[in-house]
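Box 3.1 A note on notation
Throughout this textbook, protein chains are presented in two layers. The first layer is the amino acid sequence; the second is a token string describing backbone geometry. Keep the layers aligned when reading.
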Amino acid sequence: MKINYCIKKITQVLSYFLFVLLFACSPEYIPNMINTPMLSNKGEIQGNIAAGINTIDGQMAIAITDNFAVMTNASYYNRTSDSTNNFHKHILLEGGLGYYLKLSDVGRFEVFGGYGLGNVEGYYENSIIGSSITDANFSRFFIQPAIGASSQVFDGSFATRFVFVRMNPNGDNFDTGSYIPFIEPAVTFRLGYKHIKGVMQVGFSLPISKTNINFDYQPIIFNVGVSYNIWKSYE
């Protein structure tokens, strides 16, 4: 009985700290999953549907020639606490243009750049930090070189995305008038066969300088989902 009681108390304490971790701050900037398609040939279409830390991501990339491609990304999340008025909601839509190159039968190099627009809203309140309100539109430029491999069974890549984020508050809760640079390195793995693979991405999102940043951000990128590919030529 004492063991069960201790386990129950430990569970309650861990649950409390998890709640505080999720709702203790108001992260205005939440990085989406990095789209690293590792394309091979003209006409190929690569897409991902994944869920991660405070994100649900949909992505697509289309090879319009044997070296140039376009991409589009969407990120959305809507979380509400069952016991309080705390909530978080954000949406991001962006597009980009890129160059890709086959280094060998499986080796790939690519670089994409683009622009996105989004909105974030949130309300957080607890006994530790008091209350925090978020209501802002934001814009973002990005450029992301990546290198990796692509085969019938396994895809892997390492990408470093450089982003420049500007928050435009809908009120007086915070203020920033300039673009803040972030560096976002990440590794991506896909495992399956040909057209359908599971995908996982792990990375970080860190400001290059904290001198002028006055909004919160989420430092971890983690996503798990499904990747699909059509019209890819396997040699």
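The helical segments are 2-23. The CA atoms of residues 37 and 130 lie 43 Å apart.
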